[in-house]
Amino acid sequence: MKERQTKSGFSFVKWVIILVLILAICLVTFFCIKSLPIFGQEKASLSSSNIVTALQTSSELITSKVNFRGIAKYSDEGVPVINKGDFVMVYTATVKAGIDIDKVKSAVDNQNKIVYIYLPDAEVLDVKVNNDSVEFYNKSFVLFNSDEKSDTADALHLAEEDAKSDALETGILELANQHSKTLIKGILEGVVDGYSMEFFDSLDLFQKKASQIESASSDSAN
After folding, report:
1. pTM attached to this predicted model
2. Does 217 share its domain with 161?
3. Which domain holds residue 23?
4. Residues 165, 52: contact at Cβ < 8 Å?
5. Do 105 and 117 meet the contact criterion of CB atoms below 8 Å apart?
6. Does residue 37 share a domain with residue 55?
7. Are residues 104 and 175 in the same domain?
8. Closest-CA residue to 124 (of 174, 158, 71, 184)
């Protein structure tokens, strides 16, 4: 009986010690986890700099592209017969339109969880004539025309202007404006998680809203 009591007493103490150690480990683990930024603390406020960083993956956002075949007529101002160059040029070209990311502006309302974004109007960002596709017709470079290379360079420039004009007539900028909003939403979706997005196409209205947010933020800080 005496030996059994001693063993029982030793076993009880041992279990108490084990339980105390387990409790201590749990408490230490709890407080360590709680000290982490992702636990027991509010998510850091979103700022415009977060949005700028996300958008800086590209200084230009191409949102619309048009490929087409065009015809341009060229006639220089030289003296007829002696050095005048006249020809019709058929070409294929690619015109790209989109917005300049550097012109995009944002304001964050952390209280109401809204991101306000100003999107500038789309513009033609690039016009490229495929040199391999160029074909000349009715070409009349006469013997004394020593400026054929210059005429060709001028013709290519004319083709670029012609392509840009045709692209504008097809409504490439309107299409680019529509697509830019969709692409911006896609880029910022993970960055502004938990926030809604509202877009402005008027810089004046956006700046007015940004001023209201800044004023409200200053008042709450005071």
Report:
1. 0.63
2. yes
3. 1-41
4. no
5. yes
6. no
7. yes
8. 174
CA 203 from centre of chain: 18
Could you tell me which of 119, 115, 120 has the C-alpha nearest to residue 189?
A: 115
Same domain? For 30 and 53 the reply is no
Reduced to 3 states (helix: H, G, I; strand: E, B; else coil), residue 184 is helix
pLDDT digits (tens, 9 = 90+) for 27-38: 555 444 444 443
Confidence band of 197 (pLDDT split at 50, 70, 90) = very high
Distance CA(136)–CA(91), nearest Å, equals 9
Cα separation values, 93 from 34, 49, 127, 165, Å? 60, 38, 7, 12
**Location of structure tokens 């993970």:** 190
Helices 48-55 and 172-188 pack at an angle, to 10 degrees, of 120
Check if the beta carbon of residue 78 is closer than 8 Å to that of residue 85.
yes
Say what the pLDDT of residue 81 is. 47
Domain count, the chain: 2
Strand-pair partners of 123: 98
Residue whose tokens read 């290379």 = 149
Residues 155 and 63 both lie in one domain: yes
Characterize the bridge pairing of strands 60-75 and 86-100. antiparallel
DSSP code string of 119-169: -PPPEEEEEEE-GGG-EEES----TT---HHHHHHHHHHHHHHHHHHHHHH
Mean pLDDT (whole number) for 132-157: 67
